[in-house]
Recover the amino acids of this structure.
């Protein structure tokens, strides 16, 4: 059974090396002998039912984000939400994460509605939150942490229906106030951690792959990989994050 | 110059010689920082003493190379510039250059100010120097944590440029849609430069491409061809906006690997064929930029061409060092577009390669290292003998290399730069070359190591 990844707006939403996450998913499937396909889906294209096992979307610049927001609502939002309810996995980062919530409220102008995967809303903030982040997370794998880099001014607040991806021990996270970082709903993960999250958080990468396989009807556990280098990079990044704050 | 300015100058001079003697970093910013604190109008009062005014060079990639090339062009034309040649390109760096190149009375040794300026510092530099010419070479994603978004950066630059005197000139890269958009509707004279041949183009946009939408109407741009990142021949699918006609243009190109590039450049007075002794298309743009400025300053084209042909790169940008019976070629790469272009040049050399990638995440490098995932390391697949990953973020770099699946070559991770350098050199066959690709502060550190070994001279003496 092969896994099919849907890369949403690969041309427009790829601002901080986000495609490294897709590279990580693809390699970690192939290294285990799991066939995998990546399909990019751009403006005005529709999400075919039952076609995708993992959705991915990165962050973009403001102008791109507005275009994508309208297109998501018009052409893809309902279908993506339905696929996630049926077991598809998703990883959405930064701008992608915001658009998967209820809405984004800028300083001036109208609210940008989201596609309601996460019970979360975002408001424009005064200050950019920039820097290394470490969060304690149940999806972090061996060390129970996820590590990455954040760069956002939007402040996201979670409602009751969505759990955070983790609690920050270094950095700002969702809003710099309540220590939460990211959101999880079923197999969908939203986060502000870009910095190509998955290569050095293999536990999170494998959570998504496992979900994707389950969606294909395969429930066996994943073959372990030699992740010595991944975990070393993980630990060094955590140490660097603690040092730079 | 007022009393305040004079004491700023004297204290700055004292600090400059003290730091050169004590060798804490060549004194490239401290004197200027202190002088501007004592007299905030210091730069303005100093540049008043330049009979030929000021030229500012900015853009993400190629600032130092272009400015250094222009300095030798100006010298060739008998015009000594005051130049921030150490690459310190914030206001303190400009002030330090003015302190260094003046006597105790504040009389400058040069006749024209030639300054490379950080993109974000351009508005301040324009306000303080009232330049006769501003050049923007390109705008790539580089340390977004510092600059915010490219669109915002470009509109700030345009705002600053529109305040220039009416007889000022603006030189812009026509092939970069965002840079070219700065020239639309300006009252000042605009000189566009670019590449008018598709002989080095690719039909696919490389991954590290930034500007894909029309600056006028937001619709996607369509490209006839791409040259380097988002640079190429573009037009808007909706409003008809197109790449402007270039007055200074490369009409023929012959890439000769790491040796350099043969090219023919047309300019308002005719055309000239020459050899650029620096590798990569990015250096063709640097040369075109220097031609655009040089011809706008009415310097003889033969003088410009001569300076290009005998040009050696600004320190660390491209530097070849002999280490015993091996060579070391160091090429600075500070963002995805720059590193992509460096790798593309290397990939064009069909030999087995030993590479040292040195990735730091200090403020000057950009704290965020995720950009390495936007670089197509994959293009070196099957060409590598050994890759050594080093620097503060050595393990992130190693992971990038692992996921690029580069084939049979071995991968070594050693965060310590000095040890990494020895490991890298050790693996090179006698007569062969170790290619060293560092980020900015890793380059400075590596240079320091090579200086201590007596292999290169410190840049503040150069
Ligand atoms: Zn347009």
């Amino acid at each position: 059974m092969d896994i099919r990844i849907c890369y949403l707006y690969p041309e427009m939403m790829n601002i901080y090396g986000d495609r490294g996450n897709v590279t990580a998913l693809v390699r970690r499937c192939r290294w285990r002998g799991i066939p995998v396909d990546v399909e990019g889906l751009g403006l005005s294209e529709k999400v075919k039912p039952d076609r995708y096992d993992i959705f991915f979307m990165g962050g973009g610049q403001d102008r791109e984000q507005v275009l994508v927001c309208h297109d998501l609502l018009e052409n893809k939002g309902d279908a993506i939400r339905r696929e996630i309810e049926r077991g598809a996995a998703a990883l959405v980062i930064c701008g992608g994460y915001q658009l998967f919530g209820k809405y984004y409220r800028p300083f001036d102008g109208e609210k940008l509605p989201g596609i309601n995967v996460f019970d979360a809303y975002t408001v424009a903030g005064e200050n950019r939150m920039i820097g290394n982040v470490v969060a304690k997370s149940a999806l972090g794998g061996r060390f129970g942490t996820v590590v990455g880099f954040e760069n956002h001014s939007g402040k996201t607040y979670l409602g009751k229906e969505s759990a955070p991806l983790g609690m920050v021990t270094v950095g700002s996270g969702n809003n710099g106030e309540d220590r939460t970082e990211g959101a999880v709903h079923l197999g969908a993960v939203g986060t502000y951690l870009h910095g190509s999250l998955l290569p050095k958080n293999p536990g999170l990468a494998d959570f998504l792959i496992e979900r994707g396989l389950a969606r294909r009807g395969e429930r066996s556990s994943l073959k372990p990989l030699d992740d010595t280098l991944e975990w070393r990079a993980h630990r060094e990044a955590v140490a660097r994050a603690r040092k730079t704050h | 110059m007022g009393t305040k300015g004079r004491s700023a100058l004297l204290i700055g001079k004292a600090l400059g010689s003290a730091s050169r003697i004590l060798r804490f970093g060549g004194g490239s910013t401290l004197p200027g920082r202190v002088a501007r604190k004592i007299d905030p109008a210091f730069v303005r009062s100093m540049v008043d003493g330049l009979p030929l005014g000021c030229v500012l060079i900015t853009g993400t990639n190629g600032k130092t190379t272009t400015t250094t090339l222009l300095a030798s062009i100006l010298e060739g034309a008998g015009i000594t510039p005051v130049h921030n040649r150490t690459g310190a390109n914030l206001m303190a760096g400009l002030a330090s250059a003015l302190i260094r190149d003046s006597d105790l009375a504040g009389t400058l040794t040069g006749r024209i100010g030639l300054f490379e300026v950080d993109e974000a510092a351009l508005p301040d530099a324009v306000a303080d120097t009232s330049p006769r010419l501003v050049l923007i070479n390109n705008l790539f994603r580089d340390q977004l944590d510092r600059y915010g978004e490219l669109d915002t950066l470009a509109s700030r630059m345009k705002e600053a440029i529109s305040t220039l005197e009416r007889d000022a000139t603006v030189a812009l890269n026509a092939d970069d849609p965002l840079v070219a958009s700065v020239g639309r509707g300006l009252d000042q004279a605009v000189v566009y430069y670019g590449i008018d041949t598709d002989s080095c183009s690719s039909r696919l946009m490389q991954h590290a491409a930034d500007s894909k939408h029309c600056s006028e109407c937001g619709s996607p741009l369509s490209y006839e061809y791409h040259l380097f990142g988002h640079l190429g021949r573009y037009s808007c699918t909706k409003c008809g906006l197109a790449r402007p006609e270039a007055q200074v243009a490369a009409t023929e190109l012959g890439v000769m690997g790491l040796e350099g590039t043969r090219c023919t450049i047309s300019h308002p007075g005719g055309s000239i064929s020459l050899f650029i002794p620096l590798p990569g298309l990015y250096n063709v743009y640097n040369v075109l930029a220097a031609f655009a400025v040089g011809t706008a300053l009415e310097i003889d084209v033969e003088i410009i061409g001569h300076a290009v042909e005998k040009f050696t790169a600004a320190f660390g940008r491209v530097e070849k060092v002999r280490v015993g019976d091996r060579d070391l070629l160091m090429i600075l790469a500070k963002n995805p577009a720059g590193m992509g272009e460096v790798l593309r040049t290397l990939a064009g050399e069909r030999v087995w390669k030993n590479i040292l990638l040195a990735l730091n995440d200090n403020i000057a490098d950009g704290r965020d290292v995720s950009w390495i995932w936007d670089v197509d390391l994959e293009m070196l697949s099957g060409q590598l003998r050994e890759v050594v990953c080093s620097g503060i973020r050595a393990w992130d770099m190693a992971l990038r290399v692992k996921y690029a699946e580069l084939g049979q070559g071995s991968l070594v991770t050693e965060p310590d730069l000095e040890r990494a350098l020895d490991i890298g050199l050790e693996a090179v066959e006698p007569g062969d070359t170790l290619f060293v690709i560092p980020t900015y502060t890793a380059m400075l550190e590596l240079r320091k190591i090579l200086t201590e070994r007596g292999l290169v001279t410190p840049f503040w003496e150069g």
